[in-house]
Every structure is written in C-alpha cells, then in structure tokens.
Design brief:
Elements: E1 8-10, E2 13-15, E3 27-29, E4 37-43, E5 46-51, E6 55-59, E7 67-69, E8 78-84, E9 87-92, E10 102-106, E11 114-115, E12 125-131, E13 134-139, E14 148-151, E15 159-160, E16 170-176, E17 179-184, E18 189-192, E19 200-201, E20 211-217, E21 220-225, E22 228-232, E23 240-241, E24 251-257, E25 260-265, E26 268-272, E27 280-281, E28 291-297, E29 300-305, E30 310-313, E31 321-322, E32 332-337, E33 342-346, E34 351-354, E35 362-363, E36 371-378, E37 384-390, E38 395-398, E39 406-407, E40 417-425, E41 428-435, E42 440-443, E43 451-452, E44 462-467, E45 472-476, E46 480-484, E47 492-493, E48 503-509, E49 512-517, E50 520-524, E51 532-533, E52 543-549, E53 552-557, E54 566-570, E55 578-579, E56 589-595, E57 598-603, E58 608-612, H1 614-617
Antiparallel strand pairs: 1-2, 3-58, 4-5, 5-6, 6-7, 8-9, 9-10, 10-11, 12-13, 13-14, 14-15, 16-17, 17-18, 18-19, 20-21, 21-22, 22-23, 24-25, 25-26, 26-27, 28-29, 29-30, 30-31, 32-33, 33-34, 34-35, 36-37, 37-38, 38-39, 40-41, 41-42, 42-43, 44-45, 45-46, 46-47, 48-49, 49-50, 50-51, 52-53, 53-54, ...
Length: 700
Amino acid sequence: MKKSVLLICTALGALAFLTTKSQADWTRSNGPWSSTVMDILANGPDLFAATRGGGVFLSTDNGSSWIPLDNGFTNPYVNSLGVSGTSLFAGTTTVYGGIGGGIFRSTDNGATWTLASSGLTNSSVNSIAVSGSNLFAGTDTLNGNGGVFLSTNNGDNWTRVSDGLPLDHVLALVINGTSIFAGTSSSGVYLSTDNGGSWNAVNNGLTDLTIAALAASGNDIFAGTNGGVFLSTDNGSTWSQVNSGLTSLFIHSLGVSGTNLFVGTEDGVFLTTDNGTSWAHVSSGLTNKYIFSLEASGSELFAGTWGSGVFRTSDSGENWTLASTGMTGGDIRSFAIDDEHFFVGTGGGGVFLSTDSGANWDNVGLINEFVYSMAARPDGKGGVSFFAGTMGDGVFRSTDNGATWVSATAGITVPLIWSMAVIPNGKQMDIFAGSWGGGVFFSTDDGNSWTAGGIIQGAPLIASFAYNDNYIFTASWSSGVFRSSDRGLSWNSVNAGITNTFVNALWINGNDLFAGTLGGVFRSTDDGNTWVSANGGLSSSSIYAFIDSDTNLFAGAGSSNVEPGGVYLSTDLASNWNSVSPGLTNTNIRCFAINNANLFTGTYSGGLWQRPLSEMIGGPSPTPTPTATPTPSATPTTTPTVTPSATPTATPTPSVTPSPTPTPTSTPTPTPTATPTSTPRHTPTPRPRPVPRPRPTPPR
C-alpha cells in the first residue's frame, strides 16, 4: 500500500491542502514571487525587461509597474533586447535539442511580435547590439553554425559574420565606434573593425576567458568574467584586472551611468567611480543579490535578478527598492504544508509562506534562493519541522513555522539537494534527500545528522522518491529507476522496459508505479521489475510531475515549440490521456498540488495556477483531511516536499549557470554533469553564462 503524509511531493509533484474559490479553466494564483530578468532596456521613457519564461514586460512609470508584452511570442524565454529606430528586438533561447528560439521584432512598442530570424542558423540569441542601420546578434554555437550574425535590413534577413571566431558561444557584444567586441563563453574577447567581416582574438592580459558581459565607457572597454573585471584602455590590445574591493568575482552584468560603472555579481552590485581602481559594495535593500542584468535610465539604475524581478535605485546603488509589480512569473519548484502553514519554494526567489490558504504571502527567504525541494516532518507531538533543500547550501530546517531557518546539513557531502521525502519507519519519520552528484542521504533524527545511502551507480542526479510497504524508489537522470529494500543502504537498477532513462518523477497509485521521463510515461505493476510505455493520447513526451485523485492520474509535461506541454488526465491508470490545459499561458509544468476541490500546478517561470477538479474529472472531488500523523492513503508518492523541477540541461557544466527548464523536444538527449563540485556553476538559460555558487537550476 502506498503511504502519504501531510504533503506529498515527487520530483515534480506535490499534494497540498489549501482553500480557494472555484473558477473556470486555469487561472493564475498570484504571489509576490517574480520573474528572472535576463536583460533590461531603456528606450526613452519606456523600460523593457526580458524574462526567462515570461516573455517581455513593459513599464511606462519608471519601473513602478509592469505589463506583459507576449502577443506573438512562440518562445517566452528571452535572453536579450535591442532597439533600432522604431523597432524593438528580442533574442530568445533555443529549447531542448536546439529547437525554437530566434529573434522576434516589434514595430509597435512591444504590443505585437513577429519572428524575424531568416538566415539565422543558430537560434539561441544571447546578445544584441546596434550600430546605425546594422544589427548584430551573438548566438550559441552548434555544429559550427553559431557565432555572430548581421542584419542590414532591420532584421528581415541575417548573415553569419563569424570568420575568425572560435566554435564558442557568443555571450556578449558591445560596439565602440567602429570596433565591435564579442565576448565568448570560454575563448575570451574577439574584435572586429570591419563590421564583422573578420575577427581576431584580443586576450592579452585576460586570465579568465569566460566573458559574460562587456561594456564601453568612453574609450575604455570593460569585460566581466568568472575571475572579476578586466579593463582595456587601448581598444582591447591589452587588459588589466581591476578587482580591488570586489567580494565576488563572478560577474554577470555591467552597467554604465555617466562616469559610474556598476557590476552585477552573485553578491549584489558594486560601483566604481575611478575606472575600476576601487569598488564599493552598493547593495543595501537588495533581498536577492544575484544580479543578472543592469540598465541605467536617467538618474535611475535598474537591476534584474534571478527569481525576484527588478530592483531600482536613484542614489547610485546606496539604497534599492523592489520594482517588480506585475512580474508575476516566478519559478515554482516545491511545496510543504501543515494545517496552517503553506510554503512555496522557488527557483531564484527563496521561500514564501502563506498562513491564509494562499491569499497572501511573505518571503521567509534563505541565504540560498534556489529551493527545489521541501518537506514537512511531523514530530508526533503536534509540532512540524519544515525542511528546504537548496542548490549549493544543503538543507535548512525551521521548527518555528518559517520564522527562522538553521542549517541542517551535517553529513551531507554534496550540498546540491534536488529532492526530499519524509518516509515512515515504524513510528518514526525518516527524511531522505536526493542530490546532484552525491546520491541519496537520509536522516533518522530530524535532520540533525545525515548518512550517505548506498552507492547508486551511474546516477548523477536523484530527481524523485516514491515508496510502498516493501521498497523505496528513486528516479535519476540518465540512469533510470532504482529500488531499495533496506531503506537506502543499497540500491538496484529496475529499468527493464524503460526506453528513456532520464526520469524526472515517480508516482504510486495502488499497485501501480509510474515513471515520468523525457520519453513519456512508463508503468510498472510489479514493483519496477518490468515497465511498459503508457503514452496513449499524450502529445508531449517530457513528463515532470504526477498527482492523483483516487484513480484519476494527472501528468505535467514540459513545453517546446514542437510539443505543447501542459496538464494531462488519465482516468484509466495511464492507458489513455487527455489534455486539460485550457487557460494555461505557461505550459511548462513542474509540480502539482491538490486542495479539496482544486488542482494547483507550479510552472517553470510561469507562476502558480489553479483549476477545479470537477471541471476535469466531474463530480465532487475528494477532500483530503490533513492530520499531524501520516496515514496510509491512496495518494501519491511519499515525499512531503516537492523536488526541483529538474530536467537535465543539454550539457550542464560546472562553470555555467543552471540550464533553465528544458523545453523538451521530441527526442531529447540531455547529458547532465556527473560530478558537480561544491561550488557548482550552472546556467539559467540554455546559453552558457557564468553563475554563482548557489545558483543552479535545471530548470527546464
């Protein structure tokens, strides 16, 4: 029999109890979580923000409020912005397998968009630069078809101008007079003085060749790298390191305002007024210090963060205020709940708490904002310990309903926690944590200490847990499903019949075990000994979440421009599926929750959504009654926490930022990093960007 606790979550599924009023189709359940802002562009009185998953937003009141400009976008994962005359351009990222992306153009201030990518042979656009009537785009490289592209007719057509460039991603572009500089992900800086006709490396003095940002100030060129800031005063011929005062050397953005130069790092914003000779930390008021973009507009400076939207300062960074009203995207990754406290863990914004069934939320953040897994562990005496699994800092615990959090990581040797589960052991409640690179850890003493479980061969990332009376199951990227009969001390592979071993989610309903993979759904009726495909009616093959209501099974899928993603329902235990996604404007599903008569879903960069169960399955829906003590139930897997919306990045590397949520293709072939280090560098968008220590996101 399957067991459950107050809240049950799988790698991307969760069961939560909260009340809401009924509504038609899916509607957004707004909270204070916000979008990840990849780029900010000031154009006269207007501000535009490029977001990961939410498209482009516009502010006409200096950042006080924002409205979405997504009409015409077929890919809302926007990396870069540019303006040429009356045309606005947005460079988007490719999704899994190199599908999608490209450049979109608007001639009506962002009200509508059309694809303007003719001639682009690589459609993951990281940077845009304008020089007169010439428009340049820096892209990823794939099979040698990326680099820099030029349009001389307002984006109608593009020509590849990459002679001399290495086979490397172009992350940054800056134009200074007749000189065009291109920053690459591992080959340093390249210079063209003939409109992109030819390029030459200009790396003399650069000790770090990962160039995430470039800026021009007068005759000076600045490069932001994984090793700090470098300055060239001779058009790139030589570079010198200018890091005095910087407490973080991972530079993600540069911004120029008059004679002031600002850098955005994983530790906030720094300012220099003397060309980098010295830097001052100017981050008071920044509640999220991972700064991915900077833009000056008049006397104001705007900073785009990973997961918390935009901050604004009018005093050169001495004081910052949040300016994200209307940016309701948000990466919803995990849940934990008891009778009165509902927690949401986000990818970039930390932890949020509601004590009124989701009507209002407060940020009860952690030092690490990437919370991909949470758990609620009843102590049997009326109290509950809440756990948050983070990317880079291990596990945190709160015994006072989120008022304070303390590190609870003793014994965890790899602090990248992607999944958690609370599993009964007689009268005791054990906690299991799945990591990236360290296998499974478990605690029998409320997280005070952790023990490494048995070795799971070939499983770089533990994405989900499930259990029944006889076994504990784990899902892994690249190595499929594993099973333990001794509570995690040893594990055996159980993949017979599974044809895609990138497994994101597990779910148990009665005697049936389900696996959500990048190749669809598989079902086992013999505890994983054998599996069969169960994809009838599914038009999306990348499955990230499950939840059930009695025998009604829901699956959450990721989206791309070849697959719709969204929510699917099966009333016959996965023999047949039907889409139940009307109203969802973001169909990259990452987690589920059921509350009485409503189904909730968390999306990748699209926020939290809800819909009445009765609209999908008809009749009254079951009303779970949470208790302080776990009881057997017919409902899902065993983890009272939700695991990260993990989905393998196409090729994560320890020195790039988390790969955003993968938008699956019909034949994904990701290869997650097998050996992350204690200071991982992942990447927030499929483009490689240097990223801060605690910032990974498999997000896809």
